[in-house]
Design a protein that fits this description.
The protein is mainly α. It has three helices and two strands; from the N terminus they run βαααβ. The protein has one domain (about 10-75). The protein has helices at about 10-35, 45-70, 70-75; strands at about 10, 75. It has a two-stranded antiparallel sheet. Helix 1 crosses helix 2. The radius of gyration is 17 Å and the shape is elongated.
Length: about 80
């Protein structure tokens, strides 16, 4: 028999800090790849290429990783 655990509340500050760890190197890597390939493009055109890649990575890789690995950090006692 399992004991009921205390309710926990999401800490948005802790979630933001935990998301920053994988997002910073990810966006830096994407920029290093995309910028040389889009030399001469306007900023909105580069953003149109980078944004879908970043959103896909956030939804399918970064968020699940952060939620699984940092759950004790981002969920606090209510």
């Amino acid at each position: 028999m399992t004991t009921p655990s205390a309710p926990r509340k999401l800490s948005k500050l802790h979630l933001a800090l935990a998301m920053l760890l994988p997002v910073y190197p990810l966006i830096t890597t994407i920029l290093y790849i995309v910028l040389p390939l889009t030399e001469g493009w306007t900023i909105w055109q580069r953003t149109a290429v980078i944004a879908p890649v970043m959103v896909f990575a956030m939804v399918f890789f970064v968020s699940p990783f952060v939620q699984k690995r940092f759950s004790n950090f981002i969920l606090r006692a209510a």
